[in-house]
């Protein structure tokens, strides 16, 4: 348990409309269903409320933004600082003239793909294969099944740690593989995407094909965090993991998926430490077998238990 600072925050932010919660459980916020408490969990009422909160928050206070928690491992000691959950207020999706889509950072990627399909906007079907939110797609240049965020983004909007509104063109985002050059302390709030004219039934067919491909090759109905390691240049992480003999490898209830060995699974009782230690063991074995250093794609945050 962390010291309760919510009272002090509320007194310094009398016009705050969002919800502050002290020592909030974080396991429900992560697909792994692990992790210690967040010292403060803040659910802003809207972007204006978030900007107000940031403008009055101590710049030294650690801040972590959480969407669906699909690519996140929160360590067992929890998060010492503020965790910001972008909920329904950031989930609006609107189709616009010119085959464009505007989406809040909290909008699930799959729902953005569906709205685009219904509007006859092609080019965004790949979002169906990313189990996260638009905010995560912006931060990591999320991609799947032949498409990446950089291929369709027009503009991203966010807030600085001072609560100032900023916007970035596609070029200013500095996209690369699973990375953006935008400073880490910018919190994305919405994005504008450009698609192309398409037939709704054809687009839905593309999305259904992605759904079937994921279901047949990935452990989608388990407690997992998606792809664990980034693909090294010219290589596939899962092949390196398989070559190292790690398919099915376990530490307690944490296991390398036998279906797709770039996925780690919590079978129910695994701790975040178990999952992270398993991942590090996989990295060691791949390094010894292939001489390749795998980089984590899953974001690991917080502190370990003493």
UniProtKB/TrEMBL annotation:
Cofactor: FAD
Xref: PANTHER family: UDP-N-ACETYLENOLPYRUVOYLGLUCOSAMINE REDUCTASE (PTHR21071)
Domain FAD-binding PCMH-type span(s) in chain numbering: 33-220
Localization: Cytoplasm
Protein name: UDP-N-acetylenolpyruvoylglucosamine reductase
Annotated EC: 1.3.1.98
Annotated GO MF terms: FAD binding; UDP-N-acetylmuramate dehydrogenase activity
Annotated catalytic residues: 178, 227 (proton donor), 297
Origin species: Microvirga brassicacearum
A cellular-component GO term for this protein: cytosol
UniProt cross-references to InterPro entries, sorted A to Z: FAD-bd_PCMH (IPR016166), FAD-bd_PCMH-like_sf (IPR036318), FAD-bd_PCMH_sub1 (IPR016167), FAD-bd_PCMH_sub2 (IPR016169), MurB (IPR003170), MurB_C (IPR011601), MurB_C_sf (IPR036635), Oxid_FAD_bind_N (IPR006094)
Catalytic reactions of this protein: UDP-N-acetyl-alpha-D-muramate + NADP(+) = UDP-N-acetyl-3-O-(1-carboxyvinyl)-alpha-D-glucosamine + NADPH + H(+)
Record key words, sorted: Cell cycle, Cell division, Cell shape, Cell wall biogenesis/degradation, Cytoplasm, FAD, Flavoprotein, NADP, Oxidoreductase, Peptidoglycan synthesis
Gene: murB
PROSITE patterns named in the record: FAD_PCMH (PS51387)
Primary localization: cytoplasm
GO BP: any one term: cell wall organization
Family: Belongs to the MurB family.
Function: Cell wall formation.
Pathway named in the protein's UniProt entry: Cell wall biogenesis; peptidoglycan biosynthesis
NCBIfam families cross-referenced by the UniProt entry: murB, PRK13905.1
């Amino acid at each position: 348990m962390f010291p309760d600072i919510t009272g002090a925050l509320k007194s310094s932010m009398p016009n705050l409309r969002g919800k502050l919660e002290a020592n909030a459980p974080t396991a429900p916020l992560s697909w792994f269903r692990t992790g210690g408490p967040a010292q403060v969990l803040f659910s802003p009422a809207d972007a204006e409320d978030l900007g107000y909160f940031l403008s009055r928050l101590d710049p030294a206070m650690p801040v972590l933004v959480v969407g669906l928690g699909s690519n996140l491992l929160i360590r067992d000691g929890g998060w010492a600082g503020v965790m910001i959950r972008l909920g329904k207020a950031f989930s609006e999706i609107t189709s616009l003239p010119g085959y464009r889509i505007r989406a809040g950072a909290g909008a699930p990627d799959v729902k953005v793909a569906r709205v685009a399909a219904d509007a006859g906007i092609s080019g965004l079907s790949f979002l169906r294969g990313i189990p996260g939110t638009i905010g995560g797609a912006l931060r990591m240049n999320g991609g799947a099944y032949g498409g990446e965020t950089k291929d369709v983004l027009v503009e991203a909007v966010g807030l600085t740690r001072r609560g100032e509104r900023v916007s970035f063109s596609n070029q200013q985002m500095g996209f690369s593989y699973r990375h953006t050059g935008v400073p880490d302390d910018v919190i994305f709030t919405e994005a504008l995407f450009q698609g192309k004219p398409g037939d709704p039934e054809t687009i839905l067919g593309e999305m259904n094909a992605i759904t079937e491909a994921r279901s047949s090759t990935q452990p989608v109905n388990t407690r997992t965090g998606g792809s664990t390691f980034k693909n090294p240049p010219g290589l596939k992480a899962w092949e390196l993991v398989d070559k190292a003999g790690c398919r099915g490898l376990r530490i307690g209830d944490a296991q390398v998926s036998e279906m797709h060995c770039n996925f780690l699974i919590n079978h129910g009782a695994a701790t975040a430490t178990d999952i992270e230690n398993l991942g590090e063991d996989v990295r060691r074995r791949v390094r010894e077998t292939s001489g390749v250093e795998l980089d984590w794609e899953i974001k690991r945050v917080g502190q370990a238990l003493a």
